[in-house]
Design brief:
Mean pLDDT of chain A: 97
CATH class of the largest domain in chain A: Alpha Beta
CATH superfamily of the largest domain in chain A: Thiolase/Chalcone synthase
Oligomer: homodimer
CATH topology of the largest domain in chain A: Peroxisomal Thiolase, Chain A, domain 1
Distance between the termini of chain A: 15 Å
Largest sheet of chain A: 9 strands, mixed
Helix content of chain A: 25-40%
Low-confidence stretches of chain A: none
Largest interface: A-B, 69 and 69 residues
Number of helices of chain A: 14
Structural class of chain A: alpha/beta
Order of helices and strands of chain A: EHEHHEHEHHHHEEEHEHEHHHHEE
Radius of gyration of chain A: 19 Å
Chain lengths: 389, 389
């Protein structure tokens, strides 16, 4: 962060993603919170500020006021607490807000959480709740769904850049492979290109294996000024930048539906603040709510030119062990997408990678700098965070 | 704020509160935003960060992702935007987050908005949406409503401190009187104690005139570091402190249901940060979602001992022109309670008061320091803000 106080992560932790029938939203937040606090070696009493990312507690479980709910359930009263929301980028936004709180000089130890309990509603209802992330009056009202919007993007992208459907399948196959090595992943099964290509159609050209699942889950990170973080850990992870950006909620108003301009803007700004270049990045977590989104992200983040991500994917460069590892945890596709938690879960994964603590087969060797990319809606919000060892 | 960067308000504005059948959530935000930007003498392009308080866009109008929505509709892309939520304290929390953004040194000109469009659902459904602010599993699930919870607090308070029902009515009469002088108020009719006492029972002892209305409305404040604010206005309003605090969401877990501990904690901390005492405050906006809440607020903020607010109210001290003016705009009761906007609307009112620009009859003469108090739920969140000329 470009200010006097450098922000660092002491610890970060996530629950397993999945269908947690035995856990409510409080239990999920508690589980991730206790893990993070334990790992940090702090006591709950040390926490001075709490930010919780949550997209739709109201519509999923009838519960708003989730900042205070989590503070209450974790025994953190009377510290300030709040929920922040930017659709599926709620977690990333929570993280950037936590960084602001530390950077402001008003708070030293700050907890950033993300939580979503999605499976208490029927699957069709989940799709309708998620439509709250698009422009209600101009998109949802007319029957648009997110698979439908991303399908439009995919169709156009495939046409513009002559990309074959197998490329999308390759993204899914790679992410399921990484997920198979991640004990916290929602899906741990490996799949083949053939399986992906014959899976049920959701919204042409997107099939089941192109879509991230509806998941329950939570993640928590503990932040502090670097100097204080060093007292708690020998391996503080430094926040070089955490930048949100906005764009139109509705796809119809975009300059180009194959580019998420909020990602472009946030990435450029983040690299500028971090004084880093694309080649400095060793490991990347991107927002692959649909397989097409992973391709767009790689390009919009500036790691290759428009239309060239398919080559990287088809050549296997995005596997751990490849030239440019993407979504080492299985991405949203396989590790799960508990919408409000996803952005913080990505941070927890990067912290693991930068500390060399990821499971065998999915650890990027010697990773020193990582980037997380979290998107809300079809690109109305994007958050880009750069972390370094 | 206790940091190197002193935060100030350049301008603040609110829409009229009421049933805005002809306006959607975007239109309300736009109206307040344009007023604030115009008053500030800035251009939209100068705004670097946007925080929007909104409680239940998802359940009221199917719309989440309201930070980006407002950024989009106000032409602010690609700046960072987010929605923050802490039930009915969402506006207050948004304001305190805006202050953090300025204080962090990362952003200079920050817009803080609050917006709620509540009247698109049936009144009974509004009550159910608002229940999202309580502990769903331990309160709402069992049929609790907010009038019911505050009625419990009122009953106990009247019993403990030997307070008569006329005191509650006096709060309503005073707030309707102030509201009658405020062109932006939802209700501009004056009422009598007799009218209040025979109005329909909602939840014993609370009657219709004890309850704030379901309102549509929005408010926006423009913040900057003091030195920059001075370039835009001769009367910057300085943010001496803006402090949120948390408590249990559910009333059943409270130490004492006649005290909102989050208010006590936030107020003590705010006065400490502001280096001020209670006697320094000239004008107060408190969170009177129900008349009982105004009595609790005066006491919990430390302006008198527990049980003594009724004397102040019954003696007429809380009128403009009295010793201790409270809710000069009519409070939530008469000026309206568009839940996510209320906290910012209070700030807009204080800015008006501290600049001596309130309407005749409701301007506190020579007001130099004001305090705003915003509560979420039955006290799970409280935000106390101290502003000075």
């Amino acid at each position: 962060m470009p200010n006097k106080r450098e922000v660092a992560i002491i610890s970060a932790a996530a629950t397993k993603c999945g269908e947690h029938w035995d856990k409510g939203i409080k239990d999920l937040a508690w589980e991730a919170g206790v893990k993070a606090v334990d790992e940090a070696g702090i006591s709950g009493k040390d926490i001075e500020y709490l930010v919780v990312g949550n997209m739709s507690g109201g519509m999923f479980v009838g519960q708003e006021h989730i900042g205070a709910l989590v503070a209450d359930f974790l025994g953190l009263n009377p510290i300030p607490s709040l929920r922040v929301e930017a659709a599926c980028a709620s977690g990333g936004i929570a993280f950037s807000q936590g960084c602001l709180a530390v950077a402001s000089g008003l708070y030293d130890i700050v907890a950033v959480g993300g939580v979503e309990k999605m499976t208490d509603v029927e699957p069709e209802q989940a799709t309708s709740v998620l439509s709250g992330a698009m422009d209600f009056e101009w998109e949802a009202y007319f029957g648009a769904t997110f698979p439908g919007l991303y399908a439009l993007m995919a169709k156009r992208y495939m046409y513009e850049y002559n990309v074959k459907i197998e490329t999308l399948a390759n993204v899914a196959v790679k992410n399921h492979f990484h997920g198979s090595l991640n004990p916290l992943a929602h899906f741990r099964n490996r799949i083949t290109v053939e399986e992906a290509l014959i899976s049920p159609m959701v919204a042409d050209p997107l099939r089941k294996y192109d879509c991230s699942p509806v998941s329950d889950g939570a993640a928590v990170a503990i932040l502090a000024p670097l100097e204080i973080a060093k007292k708690y850990t020998d391996t503080p992870i430094i926040v070089k930048a955490s930048v949100p950006a906005s764009d139109t909620l509705s796809l119809l108003k975009r300059r180009d539906i194959c580019t998420i301009d909020a990602t472009v803007y946030a990435a450029n700004k983040a690299f500028q603040l971090a004084h880093m270049e694309r080649k400095d990045i060793d490991a990347v977590e991107v927002h692959d709510c649909f397989t097409i989104a992973e391709l767009l992200a790689i390009e919009d983040l500036g790691f290759c030119k428009k239309g060239e991500a398919s080559k990287m994917v088809n050549e296997g460069q995005t596997y751990v062990g490849g030239k440019f590892p993407v979504n080492m945890d299985g991405g949203l596709k396989a590790s799960g997408h508990p919408v409000g938690a996803t952005g913080v879960k990505q941070i927890a994964e990067l912290v693991k990678q930068l500390r060399g603590e990821a499971e065998r087969g999915r650890q990027v060797n010697g990773a020193e700098v990582g980037l997380a990319h979290n998107v809300g809606g079809s690109g109305g919000t994007a958050v880009v965070t750069i972390l370094s060892r």
